[in-house]
Amino acid sequence: MDICHIPYRFSVTPLKFSHVRRNFCLPRSQTTSFCPRIPVASNSLSETDSSEPKSRNRMFILGMGFVGQFFSQALKNQGWAVSGTCTSIMKKKQLEEKGFDIYLFDANQPEQSTIDVMKYHTHLLVSIPPVVGIGDPMLQHEELLRSTLMDGNLQWLGYLSSTSVYGDCGGALVDEDYPTIPTSELANLRLDAEKRWLNLGDDLRLSAQVFRLGGIYGPGRSAVDTIIKQGALSESQKMRVSRQYTSRIHVEDISQALKASIHAPSPGEVYNIVDDDPAPREEVFAYARDLVEKKWPGQIKQSTNESESFIKMGSPRGAKRVSNARMKKELGVRLLHPNYGSGLKSIINYMEQYETYPSSLP
User: Fold this and answer.
1) Which of 31, 38, 251, 357 is spaced 20 to 30 Å from 24 by Cα?
2) Distances in Å between the alpha carbon of 120 and those of 97, 222, 264?
3) Which of 215, 222, 255 minimizes the C-alpha distance to 336?
4) Per-residue pLDDT at 146
5) d(CA 207, CA 198)
6) How far out from the chain centre does Cα 194 lie?
7) CA-closest candidate to residue 82, choices 55, 64, 60, 103
8) How far apart are CA 68 and CA 119, in angstroms?
9) Which SUPFAM superfamilies match (predicted)?
10) Rg of the chain over all Cα atoms, to the nearest angstrom
């Protein structure tokens, strides 16, 4: 499968950025462990330019989770050197077997040696979520980060946030300038982390951007996988069923949006990373079930937990429809999966091609 369809050759060289502080997170009206096997991309963007040393571009990823691993493999396919952090010895071994330099890391008690390593990379992606009662665990050590990274090689910083910072907007179409009114502690902490990472990037004279991701899905993490496994839905998943709209994004499209930002950095900018089709979760699951039943007839049955989870209690909440216009206009991203139909079909094809079905299926 193609990793990226960005309409330009992806090659990054050291850049000098004009240093401009932007009003990055406040609206203009306000003042205040499934690891997918990633195939090598077949298009020209995945081919390493032999005239450029492989070590020229070096990415360090704080938090090698689902998105971090997919993005790491996409960069590695292009000849990047990729390093990152995880919190378990087993995961460290698995990632090292894939060719990444991995550091065991506790963000609450970071080792100076690991932060020292970060400064010798050209790009930094932060993919560690905030913690209730603590906030962003890395930013507890903001002064240490600032003093260590000040004279390093970093040029670009990306922070992965969430569209949850907008809160429940009654079904309104929201862009990056829409008022942020988080309705949960975690969403509030996300918003605070956005501000602080962009401020830190500003202080370090980096091109720092925030990416507000919709619901993330991809191979091993989708409605198709949930239906096949027939596991009980979490309470948060059941609550999302009552939403009139939910925004989502395939991990492939997250990857290409990040690459586009690296190619055309915009200091202090915020981007919504979502597809074109905000749709009810119930609709998405119904479509996924239909795909599975057509592909593997008679292999699944309706689970009690799933049936109960789709019973709506009262009127559906409006949530929000999130606009991706800025991502398309400024980053030039052409979505590989503009809607859940395209994304879920690709996951079915992936499972068939790489034989990753659970034991209950062929």
Assistant:
1) 251
2) 23, 36, 21
3) 255
4) 96
5) 9
6) 14
7) 60
8) 19
9) NAD(P)-binding Rossmann-fold domains
10) 20
- Greater pLDDT, 88 or 298: 88
Which tokens hold the place of 300?
């699944």
Q: What's the helix, strand, coil split of the chain in %, to 5?
A: 40, 15, 45
Beta carbons of 158 and 167 less than 8 angstroms apart: no
d(CA 220, CA 141): 34
Closest CA to 83 of 97, 63, 102, 65: 102
Residues 6+ apart with CB under 8 A from 315: none
- Name residues whose C-beta falls within 8 Å of residue 342's C-beta, 6 or more positions apart in sequence: 336
Mean pLDDT of 162-173: 92
Q: H/E element holding 224? A: helix 223-229
Q: Compute the mean pLDDT over every residue in the chain, rounded to the nearest whole number.
A: 81
211: β partners: 160, 271
Quick one: three-class SS letters along 243-294?
Answer: ECCECEEEHHHHHHHHHHHHHCCCCCCEEEECCCCCECHHHHHHHHHHHHHH
Beta pairing partners, 212: 161, 272
Q: Tokens 């890391």, residue?
A: 105
Q: In sequence order, what are the residues at sequence separation of 6 or more whose Cβ sits closer than 8 angstroms to the Cβ of residue 116?
A: 148
> What local confidence, expressed as pLDDT, does residue 30 receive?
36
Examine the pLDDT at 58 and tell me if it is beyond 60: yes
Question: How much is the pLDDT for 56?
Answer: 81
